[in-house]
Amino acid sequence: MPPVALASFRKKTRKSRTLASRDVVSQHSGVQPFVRLRISQGRVYSRAAEFLREVETLKRALLSQHELRKAARLHRTDVLVRPLASFHADSRYGGDLHRADMAWAVHAAARGLSREQIEHEILNSRDLSKKGPPQRRLAYAMRTASKAIALSAQ
After folding, report:
1. 54/98 same-domain check
2. Phi and psi, residue 25, nearest 5°
3. Apex CA 145: angle with CA 143 and CA 150, to 5°?
4. How many domains does the structure of the chain reveal?
């Protein structure tokens, strides 16, 4: 495939950045510089369809690899999950049981426990009566589990 100069492609090598320094747009965000499009004749790349198919194939391959790694990470249930009580007793949380609950929930989610399992453990591990009526306790457990799963998926 012949090289293509598109405005959204970044120059990646130090040599190419040095050689084309006058064509580089300064970025204040810390992101590597982008190429400035100097001339455009408004024509479509003659092999655009082939180029896009190739990009889509690469994208699918990368996504499938990512999904395989994610699935492997989720199915690692052979790793032990520490008990929630050990998080409650941990001095790092200074008696803040909410922080300990969240830390344990992230720990459990990273080891493959489901949202329902995490909620069940939070609801039954300690007295949550100070959180109010049962529906508020359930809402607390659901929020904590959902947030933990979202954090562990990142």
Report:
1. no
2. -90, 130
3. 95
4. 3
Output the pTM of the full model: 0.50
Residues contacting 59, CB < 8 A, separation 6+? none
Reduced to 3 states, what is the DSSP secondary structure of residue 90? coil
> Are 87 and 95 contacting, i.e. CB atoms less than 8 angstroms apart?
no
Q: Among the listed ranges 22-36, 85-99, 102-116, which one has the minimum average pLDDT value?
A: 22-36
pLDDT, tens only, 46-89: 888 998 999 899 888 888 887 777 666 655 545 688 999 999 99
Token readout for 23 is 């064509």
Query: Given a cut of 70, is residue 2 above it in pLDDT?
Result: no
H or E segment and range at residue 100: helix 97-110
Segments forming the whole domain that contains residue 96: 84-152
